[in-house]
Amino acid sequence: MLTQRDFPGPPTTRFSVIRLVSETGSTNRDLLDRAADAASQNQPIEEGAVLVTDHQTAGRGRQGRIWLDQPGASLLTSVLLRPAPDWAPLVPLLTGLAIADGLRAIADVEVGLKWPNDVLTTDERKLAGILTEATSGRSGLTVVTGFGVNLRWTDGPPAGVPAVDLATLVVDPPERFDLLTAILVELEGRLRQIEDGDRAGILDSYRTRCISIGRRVRLATPSGDVIGDVVAVDDNGHLVIAKLDGGEVAVSA
Question: Which residues of the chain have pLDDT under 50?
Answer without folding.
Answer: 63
